[in-house]
Amino acid sequence: MLASNETLDPTIQTSSLPQAQQKKHLQLISKTYQNNSESDYTEKIRDLGNEFDYEINSNYYWGDPELSVMYGTPLYNAASASQKLSLNHLFWVGHYNHIAASEANTSIYNTVTNGVFRSTGSYETLCQELDFETEQESYHIRTFQKIGFKTKMAIVGKTTLGNSAYGNSEKDNNSWLRLIIPNSVREFFVSGQGNSPFSVHRDRTLSAIAKTMLRDKKQYYSQYLRDLEAKGQPIPAPADGLGGRIAPRYWLKFFTIHWGMSPFMACQYYSLRYMANAVLKNHEYSYVKYFRELERKGEYIPAPTAVSYYHLMDEAFHTTISQTIAKDMYKDFPKPTAYEKFVSGMIIYMMQRNLLNGFSGVFPNRCGADDPLLMVFIYKLLKSPLFEMETKEALDWMEKCFCQEHEGFHVGLKYHQSLLESLQKFFGCLDYQWKINREMGIMASEASISKALHNNLKTFKQFSESVIASA
Ligand SMILES: [Fe+2]
Ligand SMILES: [Fe+2]
Hints:
The chain is mainly α. It has 21 helices and no strands. It has helices at 19-38, 41-51, 54-57, 74-78, 81-120, 124-156, 168-180, 183-189, 197-213, 223-230, 241-246, 249-259, 263-297, 303-327, 338-355, 372-383, 391-403, 407-427, 435-438, 441-445, 449-470. Helix 2 runs parallel beside helix 6 (124-156), helix 9 packs parallel to helix 12 (249-259) and helix 16 packs across helix 17 (391-403). It starts with 18 loop residues before the first helix and ends with a helix. The site of one fe (ii) ion has 6 residues, from helix 5, helix 6 and helix 14. One fe (ii) ion is lined by residues 103, 106, 133, 137, 315, 318.
């Protein structure tokens, strides 16, 4: 468990770091593991989840009012005091629902990369820490889900707030395709389960490219991926959470082979994980400040606020590990090849383009521009027992909230900017990255309220047309 037990892999000769510096990050990993395993934040989170009773917490704000769904919109200003309280609670639920999905993704990639570190025979403490983190995530996820479910049932009952009703445009596309493309051709490309002959060929081709380009690293191939292959099972690829929004599933499978085969790429994954840590901290730190304020005043601390507080404490350990691997430990291994640099660049470029491509005017501090999925969520919320609106009334309010400037956009921009600064600071240190990634150029170019409104006008027009067409 101590750094002194660790020896660097003798097969790795080309570390660009002097021994003293190598020892420094190994010591930090050991210290973090020790502190993490001695802390009791996870147990507190577990107990808060098990004991959660919505009634007891229902009359309190769980975070600053600006952490509320629709905060700063004309609708929020017209809402009653009890609706505002519910919007504050639903924000917590929506936010942690997304975090739960993201942490499920993290658990997979922790296991994939852990297999690579273990195969070097030199990072046992780190491997134990990553196993421990994965176990912690399972407790976090269960607590988020328990609180989320009880709260949602209390506020909107069985109303689904997800995207299940937003299938019409896809259905329309398919019927349009049906008219012009012969059946045999369409079946080659399209399958409801994502396993059409075309997608199987595509996955196999991408996998063959990755394994050919990394063939000199096959001794590090993650045991987790070996086991999946032996059982004939596909590489898992998330469809939701932060990971699921970065790239289509076939790209994620392709990247996973890299993270599970090359020690450099396994370390590179942690730059992506750091992004998730920074996104989380950008949100969660506001809850922590709120928690401390209540504590200082001796006031009641709602259970979800306490969960946020203890979660950030647990995640601080994870953030340290992400930073240490992504900024220092990767230098223990041979310098990346041109191919590895290219794939690393592509991953972070996609992260910027698909996930960090703007900010929301109705869901403060949500990553990315307002999109059809968020519009479905708001539409269903307005039609739920909380607002009980008819279709036309809901669409009229949505137009005001999504397409006209209001305080919500300014709050969204504020969170976008603080995330941008922390990511620029972090990625700016990664000398192997593309310039546009070191500077977070795509994310920075989207920091504009007029751009957000322009994007929303277009998205909302399509959304409202599809709702009216299906009514
Ligand atoms: Fe977590
Ligand atoms: Fe974590």
